User: Fold these one by one.
Assistant:
Number 1:
Amino acid sequence: MRFIVFVKATKDSEAGLMPSEELLGAMAKFNEEMIKAGVMLDGNGLQPSSKGARVRFEGNKRTVNDGPFAETKELVAGYWILQVKSKAEAIEWIKRCPNPHNVDSEVEIRQLFELEDFGESEAIDHHRRLDQQMKS
């Protein structure tokens, strides 16, 4: 099972304040543990929303809104993608994580869909071929 872990943004992360050397070191150690265990597939911090954009879809119309975005609690400051046996295992790994911010913070753990979660169809076969292309 794969899970994505969203590190929620804070006012400091949205202001572009970088983590301390101490926190960067603690995160590197945590990431190393997950990599050695074969759990961590990917992970990165994200730039503040002021450097991003949102695209709104309304029928055939597309509207682009440049950041920053007002609701900090709804924003993401970073992520991990984990390969684990269960949601409980993902939770146990993340409970070991250093606090990703210098203030109270929150992460969200969500299971990713796998192609096997869908029934057989031509579209799913197309997705499987695309998946193979990405991996080669």
Number 2:
Amino acid sequence: MSVLACLEGAVLLWLVHLLLQANLTGASFSYLFSSRDEPPPQPGLVGARAARAFRNYMESFPAFVALDLAFLATNHPAGIWPTLWIAARIVYLPLYLFSVVYVRTAVWLISIVAVVAMLIRLAL
């Protein structure tokens, strides 16, 4: 998978996270289209997980985008690391939603290793 395709996939996955969170939190359409002066309804179990998974994604998404753009700008070979990051993040979402705890943590660790490896590869 090319570096650009990984960037496009990361943005698409961001959109999936965003829509899942909005859909699964239990907010009505009237709330979603309001000025949100009132607090949102309490999400159900899966909705709360979707919100936490989205926040977790947003913790590593900026670092991945910055590194991926640096690879694109410098034409430096990125290797398999961007593909590994996006694959791990795709697998991570359903693992989080269905509370597969130990495997989820291992997949998250793979995504972190991929970001660190991207940084090291870019520096060399």
Number 3:
Amino acid sequence: MANSYLMLYSKPTLQKALSENPSLEKAVWKVLNSISVESMLEEGRVYGGGLHKMEPKELGNVPVNSIDELIQSVVNDEKQEAL
């Protein structure tokens, strides 16, 4: 059985990109769902009996560079369309 994270708050850069391009939300969701189990386990801790636990600061260390790349591609696409 796994717990879930009930609330994730976006950083200002992502929030701005989402407000300017609401369709980006689905793409961000897909990126978050594609984070590997290994990436999550590397940042958390393991207690006796094999219980894996992750605190919010540890969750913040999980790499999601593809979200930055996604935002940049959307910004670049919008710049190209404006030309």
